[in-house]
Design brief:
A hairpin with a 2-residue loop joins strand 1 and strand 2. The chain has three domains: about 140 residues, 3-Layer(aba) Sandwich (Rossmann fold); about 100 residues, Beta Barrel (Elongation Factor Tu (Ef-tu), domain 3); about 80 residues, Ubiquitin-like (UB roll) (Roll). With about 350 residues, the chain is α/β, with parallel strands linked by helices. Helix 1 crosses helix 7. Bound molecules: FE2/S2 (inorganic) cluster (FES).
Length: about 350
């Protein structure tokens, strides 16, 4: 397991700190590979399509828009809890999960916030093209990141990872819990909802842009802000979550609940071949890429959502070949976002 001593070099940006952080990340990935498991049960599917209309769009910060979604007839929307998300079905047929980041208990509208990803799969660009009056359909809400009641919390958010954390912070504040928030990002200008968060209790919120503090914070540095025996909620980029997971023991915090928005790193991957039976297309999946990524280049309309193996959107029927399952697909299907094959697999695609 990684050394948990925090060297003095951590107190300043610089090459020592960079090398130490790199070493920690590598050690952390090895540790996570050995100990990897989801820290919460998978979200149960909610077979409920909700027609919604975009009633308001605001530019939260550069490249991030905040959308208010309402019932077209002005009706009350299904209830949700902090950590919940909607699966948004876009006009193109793409399906994407977005955390609900509005006021918990608000039934008159949902709020989501989306960062435009120039190199993403097109879902965020499509959201940014929506206009007031645009109609969409959503499925849910469902919750894969449940918020538990505790006396003390440390919330850690990176960038757009603030979206599921924000309603948790509001709820903790409303309950009178002892809480702290550490909010990191590339720059202050890229971090949505800073003013809204600071208005809750400025003394409990630490805004930490990389442009003002040097390279990204280590897990230990983020955890320094935890009240004693705090329950930690963390959402953001994979290296940040990895650092927090590695440094949690010995930090004084009690437990960690985390959610990432991106695909997990591929650990122990080997190359394999994929054949798409409907078109006869044959593809080679390298050791460091997912089948979904590779198939998506040949078949851009291939559906996906979570890219982490739990939502079921990308599941494809397997016609031949042995699958190394890393997601929850069963009944002869393969979660192509995370699962791999021993040698060659033929898919009904
Ligand atoms: S995209 Fe969700 S299981 Fe593959």
């Amino acid at each position: 397991m990684a050394d948990r001593t925090v060297p003095p070099a951590l107190n300043r940006p610089g090459p020592d700190r960079f090398l130490w952080t790199l070493d920690k990340f590598t050690s952390g990935m090895e540790w996570l590979h050995r100990n990897s498991r989801r820290n919460h049960p998978p979200a149960r599917p909610v077979d409920r399509d909700i027609p919604l209309v975009v009633s308001e769009i605001q530019a939260a910060v550069d490249e991030v828009v905040s959308l208010r979604l309402t019932d077209p007839g002005g009706g009350v929307l299904p209830a949700w809890q902090p950590g919940a998300h909607l699966d948004v079905l876009l006009p193109s047929g793409r399906k994407r999960p977005y955390s609900l980041c509005g006021e918990p208990g608000e039934r008159g509208y949902y709020r989501i916030a989306v960062r435009r990803l120039a190199d993403g799969g097109g879902g965020s660009r499509e959201i940014h093209d929506l206009r007031p009056g645009s109609r969409i359909t959503a499925r849910g809400p469902r919750n894969a990141f449940p918020f538990i009641t505790a006396p003390r919390y440390l919330f850690i958010a990176g960038g757009i990872g603030i979206t599921p954390i924000l309603p948790m912070v509001r709820t903790a504040a409303a309950r009178g819990a002892d809480w702290r928030l550490v909010y990191t990002g590339r720059s202050r200008e890229s971090m949505p909802f800073v003013d809204e968060l600071r208005s809750l209790a400025p003394e409990r919120v630490w805004i930490r842009p990389d442009t003002e503090f040097g390279i990204p914070a280590s897990g230990a540095e983020l955890l320094e802000h935890a009240p004693r025996a705090a329950t930690v909620y963390c959402c953001g980029p994979v290296p940040m979550i990895t650092g927090v997971r590695v440094d949690l023991p010995g930090s004084g915090a009690d437990s960690l609940h985390w959610e990432r928005f991106s695909a997990p790193p591929i650990v122990g991957g080997r190359p394999f071949d994929v054949e798409l039976a409907r078109t006869g297309i044959r593809l080679r999946v390298p050791a460091d890429r997912s089948a979904l990524e590779v198939i998506g280049e040949a078949v851009p309309e291939v559906p996906y959502s979570c890219r982490q193996g739990f939502c079921g959107t990308c599941h494809v029927r397997v016609l031949a070949g042995a699958v190394e399952h890393r997601g929850r697909a069963a009944d002869g299907r393969m979660a192509i976002c995370v699962s791999r094959a021993a040698d060659r697999v033929v898919l009904d695609l």
